[in-house]
């Protein structure tokens, strides 16, 4: 089968950084399903994992953690899906990624594709939505009941990206006042279109900007951008007994003691935790994605696709990786069709 992968890390500009390959078609075992891949999308995780020293299995290595497709075969222990089902999912870091014509994945982290979306739009959702959903509702413990969140605020740092685009919509559904950060005219406009109540610039001090729009502090902060760059701003504007969720690893030590007087909770999120450690609640991602599909089909969540490419090949994936690595991407880049 066709796939896109690599043998060793090389800068994305190198002609062999990503290659068109022919690899063996996998077979599902246990609770695995075999999916014919119709579309994929690209995330910051792709170039990050491409640079890792520790890889899964033997080369060539295959990336890709956003897939939409059709189930063609199920393992002997499967109970959730049958051949012919349309599905979408983000996959796992401990197995090969989905940048291939066929892909094997544990059914417990797979959802039913929204019926109102084509495969390309569906492929844009899983990783960012799981990250956003778990950050807001599992890590920050925000209620999904709008009445419980009346007069509560959340600051979303990096709101124009893939995760931010979904997190913003989920937070609005939960009844929060959302303050997003963005810096360029196009990203500011994007954040406003998605429903942000206010937008501030993350290259300027936060507190004066918040005070101008009537806030001395915020109840929650979801930082999807450079943790080191924004830490001092976060500690200044988080409310007493507030909560901060981080998804970008810090390079310098974090001065957590600065938050002691406020009794602030700081939590981490990675959507791969459940699949990597095979946690007892791993099937929560299946239920989460099914609930997302319902919200999409009800018109309550929109996709964040800003660019579509075809076909799925090394040349187009190099272009997508380069855009992600530039740090200037807005929304999601999706690729569809292997032929």
Structure description:
With 339 residues, the chain is of the alpha/beta class. The chain has two domains: 2-125 and 277-336, Quinone Oxidoreductase, Chain A, domain 1, CATH 3.90.180.10; 129-268, NAD(P)-binding Rossmann-like Domain (Rossmann fold). Helices cover 28% and strands 25% of the residues. It is built from ten helices and 16 strands. The chain has helices spanning 45-50, 119-123, 126-139, 162-173, 185-193, 206-212, 227-237, 273-277, 284-297, 314-326; strands at 2-6, 19-22, 32-42, 61-62, 67-74, 86-89, 102-106, 110-112, 153-157, 177-181, 198-200, 218-223, 238-246, 265-268, 305-309, 332-336. The strands form three sheets. Strands 3, 5, 6, 7, 8, 15 and 16 form a seven-stranded mixed β-sheet that branches. Strands 11-10-9-12-13-14 form a six-stranded parallel β-sheet, sandwiched between helices. Helix 3 crosses helix 4 (162-173) and helix 3 crosses helix 9 (284-297). The termini are close together.
Relevant terms:
339 residues, alpha/beta, Quinone Oxidoreductase, Chain A, domain 1, Rossmann fold, six-stranded parallel sheet, 16 strands, globular
């Amino acid at each position: 089968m066709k796939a896109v992968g690599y043998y060793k890390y090389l800068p994305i500009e190198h002609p062999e950084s990503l290659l068109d390959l022919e690899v063996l078609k996998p077979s599902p075992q246990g609770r695995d399903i075999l999916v014919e891949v119709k579309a994929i999308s690209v995330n910051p995780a792709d170039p990050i994992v491409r640079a890792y020293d520790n890889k899964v299995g033997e080369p060539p290595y295959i990336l890709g953690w956003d897939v939409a497709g059709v189930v063609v075969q199920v393992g002997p222990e499967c109970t959730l899906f049958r051949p012919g089902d349309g599905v979408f999912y983000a996959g796992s870091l401990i197995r090969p990624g989905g940048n291939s014509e066929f892909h094997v994945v544990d059914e417990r982290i797979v959802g039913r594709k929204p019926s109102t979306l084509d495969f390309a739009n569906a492929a844009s959702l899983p990783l960012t939505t799981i990250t956003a959903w778990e950050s807001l509702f599992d890590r920050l413990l925000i209620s999904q009941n709008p009445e419980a969140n009346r007069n509560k605020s959340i600051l979303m740092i990096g709101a124009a990206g893939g995760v931010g685009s979904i997190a913003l919509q989920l937070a609005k559904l939960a009844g929060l006042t959302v303050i997003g950060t963005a810096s360029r005219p196009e990203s500011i406009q994007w954040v406003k279109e998605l429903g942000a109540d206010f937008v501030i610039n993350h290259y300027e001090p936060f507190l004066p900007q918040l005070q101008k729009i009537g806030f001395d502090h915020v109840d929650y902060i979801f930082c999807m951008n450079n943790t080191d760059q924004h830490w001092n701003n976060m500690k200044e504007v988080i409310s007493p007994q507030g909560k901060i969720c981080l998804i970008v690893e810090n390079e310098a030590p974090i001065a957590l003691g600065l938050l002691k007087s406020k009794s602030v909770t700081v939590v981490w999120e990675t959507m791969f935790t459940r699949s990597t450690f095979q946690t007892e609640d791993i099937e929560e991602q299946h239920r989460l994605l099914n609930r997302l599909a319902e919200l999409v089909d009800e018109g309550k969540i929109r996709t964040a696709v800003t660019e579509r490419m075809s076909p799925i090949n090394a040349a187009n994936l190099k272009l997508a990786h380069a855009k992600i690595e530039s740090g200037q991407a807005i929304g999601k880049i999706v690729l569809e069709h292997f032929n």
